[in-house]
Amino acid sequence: KDLLPEVSNQQQAIFDQGYEVEAYAQSLFSDSKSVSNDVFKAEKETKQFIKDGVQVLFQATAIADQLLVRADILKYDPASLSWEIFEVKSPTEVKEEHLFDLCFQKIVFEQAGYKIGKTFLIHINKDYVRNGEINVKELLVIENVSDRIINFESTIKLDIPKALAVLEEQEEPHVKIIKQCTSPYECGFINYCWKEADIPEYSVYDVKRIGEKKLRDLLDIKIMEVKDIPDDFPLTETQMNQVVVAKTQQPIIDKESIESTFNSLSYPLYFLDYETFAPAIPLFDGTKPYQQVCFQYSLHVLHKNGELKHYEFLAKGKENPIPALLKQMQQDIISDSGTVMVWNKSFEMARNSEMAAMYPEYKEFLEDVNRRVFDLMEIFSKQYYVHPDFQGSCSIKKVLPVLVPELSYKILGIHDGGMATRGWHEMNFGEISDEEREKIYQDLLKYCGLDSLAMVRIFEELKK
Description:
The chain is α/β, with parallel strands linked by helices. The protein has 16 helices and 13 strands. It has a six-stranded mixed beta sheet, with helices on both faces. A five-stranded mixed beta sheet has the order 10-9-8-11-12, sandwiched between helices. Strand 3 and strand 4 form a beta hairpin.
């Protein structure tokens, strides 16, 4: 366990969200008892509660030989004289890994002497729209997956002894690192394993959208660095460009395509960036689970004469931030005039469409904004500019240090979107001091402001 890194703020936020969903799920069951967090104590408590006639248990625990499981919710069904397992997950659909999880629980409970009947997955209803207080029965879906987990039972029973055999080994197993490090979730030991495997900083794993077969083929011939990929190795044009610039250490720049693209833009140029919050449990009326709620924007307006003006909005308080944001944005962006510059247009345009559906009075304005959107990222995604230091990425955080090295996110108190999201929620809903609140407010302004300014400076460098 000492090899695991500390839980990051972002990971903790995911855990906290899961706990919140679990608490709502538990509210659907009455006359329940919660079992101890100490897993070995919990097994005894589970048996005692059952002996005492308790029919709904949270975190019921079973141990069979070297196997231990905890069920989110264990409920007795008098009709079938069996126990039902309910697993709570925060996604909006049943995934295969959820079924493996439930099936393993069923196997261990049965080996521990419990009669298990039906198995259920409780997950979030993606179509739920908040209206007033949370309606838990509408927010959550209880899905019977008893028939589906049967398909995995034989496989899992075969895998259990294999897993136990690994634990008995004196040395770490040596396996080829392919996709198992990140699928279905990122492994907590990924940094340790990659360091032990001596994977270079810029490796074949960084080749954009490389498939597992091609990755295996490269590893089989002992190729680890991008610059060592053979010239005749089958790659897409984008992947090949990435390899070429890594080998030559010279950028590929299609000046004609960049110039032609920029000639189609009309001034003033509105460099727009949103920050959003997407909670599992909707905070505001009219919003759905995981809906991206815009709480901030930064807007740099570049006029043809070179004049640059900056406008910004950041919501304070516990009210839905969208109405106030739209009211100000409508004043800051002139209708039918100029190109709206963004980075990754699918995100901004989707937010505009969602807000237009929620607030029809702004529909015409937001549709006009979407008609005028230009995605500055396309200069890089369309391979008009490929640099070895981009390392196959079109992220603004990869492009900016190359084109505008004097600007940096690293010096900011908030330096990525995840931190911005958590910061805004803490600023408005956390129990913190006024000084802490003000610091987060200023950090958010600086972070989002740099996002839109970065686009301006990258645009200016490309024009040169």
